[in-house]
Amino acid sequence: MRVTNLYENKKPVISMEFFPPRNEAAEKTFGATIDNLSTLQPDYMSITFGAGGSDRDGSYQAVNQVMVEKKHPTVAYLAGYGLGPDEITEILDRYKALGVETIFVIRGDKPRGDDFSPHPDSFPYASDIIAFIKDRYDFTLGCAGYPEGHIDAESLEKDIEYLKLKVDNGAEYVVAQYFYDNAFFFEYVRKCRAMGINVPIIPGIMPVYTVKMTQMLSKVCGSSIPADLQGRLDAVDAEDKEAVLNLGIDFAAEQCRGLLKEGVDGLHFYTMDRSRSTTDILSRLKDENLL
Ligand SMILES: Cc1cc2nc3c(=O)[nH]c(=O)nc-3n(C[C@H](O)[C@H](O)[C@H](O)COP(=O)(O)OP(=O)(O)OC[C@H]3O[C@@H](n4cnc5c(N)ncnc54)[C@H](O)[C@@H]3O)c2cc1C
């Protein structure tokens, strides 16, 4: 499945992102989560990749399970941080043999712990990895964009210049980091278009799952929490799991309505390997005939 065919022929394209199960308990629930969410008939599912390559086999197994065993259209990710050209080739050859046609390419970050040493010939930026892959393979490639700017970027404008380089080097669609204020996304797309980036830019949706996770991820990912959402988080009992989930579902559904109204090409859900929130949000949008 080439994601670009989907974006050319359907609007909005619904996609769901998963990370490979990290232990035996998660392995047991992973398949059930995929099955639950597949009832909503997403257009494709995608599987993340641990930077540094330590869990490359876990990602491969998850892609195999979702794409080959369960027969869902699937995108495999490759985070190239620290990997040498030979390692990237080996990973991609395996995906190619499995039948993967679309690879989402990110740089990734230095894995936690001091004992990781990057390969001496590893690539500094995602744009370099994309160029390397484009020269050697026939995959459709995607890349990441950051509506509020990447956390280490000199400026949003500079970050968009580097996004343009990723597209010029071969990325054919962009999935955006999540944001909690649609204005960031709309302004980002406007700036990208002004810079000549003409590929689909897909908004990422991260429902609030727990208050703690939202606060932690906001710092790591550089996605700010606007006053409106902060007010709702302050008003809820953080220990009341059901109330927090419902808050997250309400907020994300409102965001999706606003995005769909502006005619976005797709909605990409960061499921965090959980099914309830994405299910409720999509069911509401379907009930409202927005999908
Ligand atoms: C949708 C999505 C999915 C993701 N999935 C994963 C995953 O599966 N695994 C994982 O480990 N991480 C994942 N990430 C996180 C990502 O790896 C990190 O955000 C990482 O820090 C940057 O990756 P990138 O591909 O955007 O890097 P790049 O595009 O290389 O950018 C990294 C930084 O360098 C700057 N930069 C880029 N090019 C240049 C240049 N030529 N010169 C100077 N500066 C430059 C940019 O402005 C930015 O600040 C994902 C992020 C998103 C949005």
Automatic annotation (TrEMBL):
Pathway given in the UniProt record: Amino-acid biosynthesis; L-methionine biosynthesis via de novo pathway; One-carbon metabolism; tetrahydrofolate interconversion
GO biological process: methionine biosynthetic process; tetrahydrofolate interconversion
Name this polypeptide is given: Methylenetetrahydrofolate reductase
Cross-referenced InterPro entries: FAD-linked_oxidoreductase-like, Mehydrof_redctse-like
Reactions listed under catalytic activity: (6S)-5-methyl-5,6,7,8-tetrahydrofolate + NAD(+) = (6R)-5,10-methylene-5,6,7,8-tetrahydrofolate + NADH + H(+)
Entry GO terms, CC: cytosol
Cofactor(s) listed: FAD
Coiled-coil segments on the chain, per record: none
Family per similarity comment: Belongs to the methylenetetrahydrofolate reductase family.
Keyword terms, alphabetized: FAD, Flavoprotein, Oxidoreductase
Lineage: Bacteria, Pseudomonadati, Thermodesulfobacteriota, Desulfobacteria, Desulfobacterales
One MF annotation (Gene Ontology) recorded for this entry: FAD binding
Domain of life: Bacteria
